[in-house]
Predict the 3D structure of the following.
Amino acid sequence: MCLALDTKGSNRDVDRLAREGDFDWAKVDRLLNELLVEGARRLLGPLADEVLMPWLRLVRTEYCRLHLDVPLDAIGRVQALPTLVEEFFVPHAAQLLLQLHARCPGPHLDVLLDDGRSPVRAVLEWLDQSVGSPVDKLLYPDTTGNDKSSRDKMSKWRTGVDLPSGQSLKLLLDELRKEPGTRGVADAAGTWLLAARALSQFDRLGTAPVRPLLRARLELARLDVNPRKRLQELVATAGAAWPEMADLGRRLWHDLRRTTQKHAGEQADTWRRIQALEVLAREHDPDGRTAYHLAWMKGRWHALSGQYEEAQLHHEQAFELACYRAGHQVKDIVADALCIAAFLGQKPFVKQLKQVGIVLGLFERPDEDAAVVEAWEMEQFAQQLLVRFPQHGRFIESEPDLSDAPTPGLMTIALAEIEAIKPDLRTPDRVRAVRYGNGLVRRCPQLRLFASFGRVEPVRALLEASASVDALDSSGASALLCALQYAHDRSDRAVLDLLLTTGHQASTLNAVTSRKRLTPMMCAIDLGAPDVVLKLLEMGASADQLALTDLQSPLYYAITKLSGRVHPNRMLERLVAAILSEPDAAASGALRRFGVPSAGVFGDNMTLLRTQPSLALETSKALVDLHVRRYSVEKLTQIVSLLLRFGADPNKGHGYPVPGRTPLMLAAETDNPGLFELLVEHGGDPLKPDAQGQNSFQIATAFQSHRVLAWLRRSGR
């Protein structure tokens, strides 16, 4: 694309990405914007952002989906490329041409795609007609000097001898805009000259011209993008030439399944057959197209043998060989490798694997200032090892391994162990270590430890000994946050009320935990206690600090709670739908952050819940019943009022579930006119739209919020 649009310049990252397969997800994003969009903006103007960028994002997303679908383990790049061009690139390119043509006047697409003339010539002839004379003579009337050179250059463009550079096109358009009444046609000419240059370049770069393929697609109105079937047919045809390898490979993968019971003698027999397949591969597959299978099989065999150091080495090789080739198997290779590498503490390899996962959409994109792999993720991936490779699925001959010790699941501890710990009053800020039942060790300031378990007297004694309430643990949790959680879970505010008598720094009140992104304010809203919310705000807590896994504001979160209390049936429908549907990136991220073992490495495995729909329904009902019992409309409304009084923004756009959705829009959906009026009085704008173009009035209409609609009509909004 960069070569076709002549936007590459001297940027070396393009060559590095092509040469090394660099998977820096942020770098790919920057390249798309800086090279393709900004580079094309010189000629496309606003269309670069309005048409080209959305098209590039769509093509990239669809290509990643294709990459995670069809394994190309029997064919090479030469065999796959014609199908990818004809069935993937061409229909997408046709869609782009139609979008440009709908937005911008230009030559008829049949003329532009006529292989009897160059695309640049087609655009220049259209431009001749638009300005009423040959454009080269209009702009360069002299027959000598620079004018003659420019006319000769344009003559070569018309005949297809040369292609105009991006800079040459810009200079041409600058000259054209100087002519009276030509600015509009000059802007359109920039779009189509760039498109024509790209079409010509693709014809030159490809094994066959793309314009006849584009024209055929447009004539037949076939703009569907579906290369899957043809690619599968190519793979099946090529694979049929290696029946011995295919049969042995299928049997090996059957016997190397992660969770099936193994029998005595299978360890040695399976390794012998892997070696036999390797011999066949050297004979029938000298190009190494199936090499990732062998490396992966060896890695799987060592993992099932409890030999994780050896397993990682083979998984690294399998991962490198599988890129762009393994289809849906890439996901399994990455999942296996992540668990093994994290268990071994190999963070550089974990980071490399996650970079690929981000690019392919297996993980949600981190915040720009966040690490690619956070500390909690190493723990989450490592805990998944025993889920992916359970003990009963290993070879009988394998020796017991350290991976058997940590048990995935809830962190539990006997209360007697906590009660046996005495506060160290001589060192009030001492960090204490506690080992939980799943084998994990947690270290934290002792004040925060005792607050977590609601132990009033040790907390009182430590406060009297001047223990710091602002000391955070490694995840960013304070004693106050843990006391809020205890009060919520046990309906016991003794420790919380004790801590609230002590002043806290604003940085402590606004600290966000690294894994679940909790803040004291969000926990106070969970508690449903207006007096606690008021106390936090008076001490310096922000009324607008984004938190939780989907980065909500406190105001949005409080109104969400209120909406569930007012519309429990609607809340139930959403809960059930969320449980039984494919989780999106935000939901998968939340499941990972909350450490749900059954959700898998990527947080997207809902198989367990889908197989028990009645259990999902009953669980959802129990959650809704608890919500209704716990919260009151009056107290939640007080919390909203307090947040607004301390500066919460009712127009603050959120990224989820709909980008740009505001607290005011959520109030419109809830159909509470008093709440809606309160937000409007504090600056809420009913006409502000979200990313889907819906404002509060339209949202109220969609949800049949008749009382809010009546208020809007009465107020003349």
